[in-house]
DNA sequence: GTCTATATCTCGATAGAC
DNA sequence: GTCTATCGAGATATAGAC
């Protein structure tokens, strides 16, 4: 019956991932050593290799998992279909909410692309492209229905996503604005940016 | 008369800076070694220390210089005063143009804040804040004159700057869109995002 | 599953010859 | 001003005992 301390429920593995995520987000992948991660997990550096093959895999696992969760979360998000503007509002609020809920993972996903091996980079960019495409598709249909005044749905999608993602660089809980209120503001800005009719 | 090869016109010093800028932008500060920089400059690692006291100073010099140049360039940029919407258009076009002209420096300025020593970070954030404030000020006056529909000039400034800066993540020269045309699109999106009257 | 110990390598920075 | 040589530290990853 007796088992090794760390194996109860398999807590060490997940702790390696969450600790690495926190440290990578705070100091950057290249600036964080395996010894630092091990130290915060509470094991020796060598023990990490029971859970991950190497440092690069650790980074890629975090980034791939994050992107898969974003894609899955948007797929699962209840949102209307058939009304492009309603879809755009749902996407905007979803993106702001999700990016405020997962700030560490979001930060890593945007900052550490350069540190991915070529094949890992390719895999990650494919997922990012799929996510961007879900917004571009909404904007394309909105344009076709003459609900927005944009000329280039792809460029508009880049602009909107950059604007929305930026919320995580300044927002602080406990300030003047609630997350709800911030989402309202960003939806107002998004609606304006794409030239949607006010209604 | 004879001087050491590298000292003619003092070319090595600037080359250290430009090489470091290129490498930091491409691979990240922490991932680039002094030996790499020296190798691309064409000298041995030890020779770098004739031009810079240490690696951290090299990073800070690049970032501080960039921010000072942004601030100076906007100050020198001919733009109307007194008409907040005309100022906003000038700022938008200036920001897009400048950020496409200095992509390496811009990239570093946004990605390497975490690698600055505390006192250097403070100095850099003060400059960034001053730049953001020049946009916030425009938006505040535009709001006072009821030319825009935003509720919070500070949040609107964050949103606009994030949207505009994002142009450097996707724009490629030689594609379907010229820089001029891209600036037109971003001005259209900015005008909409702040809820400016169409005129 | 974690430990200690270590192999192998690279890092930033310095010293001193020329 | 650049070189060679090197110091001391810290890096990733592995081996083998328990």
CATH topology of the largest domain in chain A: Tetracycline Repressor, domain 2
Helix content of chain A: 55-70%
SSE class of chain A = mainly alpha
Low-confidence stretches of chain A: 1-8
Per CATH, the architecture of the largest domain in chain A is Orthogonal Bundle
Form type of chain A: elongated
Number of helices of chain A: 8
Query: What average pLDDT do the residues of chain A reach?
Result: 95
CATH top-level class of the largest domain in chain A: Mainly Alpha
Q: Main sheet of chain A?
A: none
Task: From the alpha carbons, calculate the radius of gyration of chain A and give it in angstroms.
Answer: 20 Å
Order of helices and strands of chain A: HHHHHHHH
The CATH superfamily label of the largest domain in chain A reads Tetracycline Repressor, domain 2
What is the β-strand count of chain A? Answer: 0
Strand content of chain A: under 5%
Count of discrete domains of chain A = 2
Instruction: Name the biggest interface.
Output: A-B, 37 and 37 residues
The quaternary structure here is homodimer
Distance between the termini of chain A: 66 Å
Summarize the structure.
The structure is a homodimer of 199-residue chains. Chain A has two domains: 8-52, Arc Repressor Mutant, subunit A, CATH 1.10.10; 54-193, Tetracycline Repressor, domain 2.
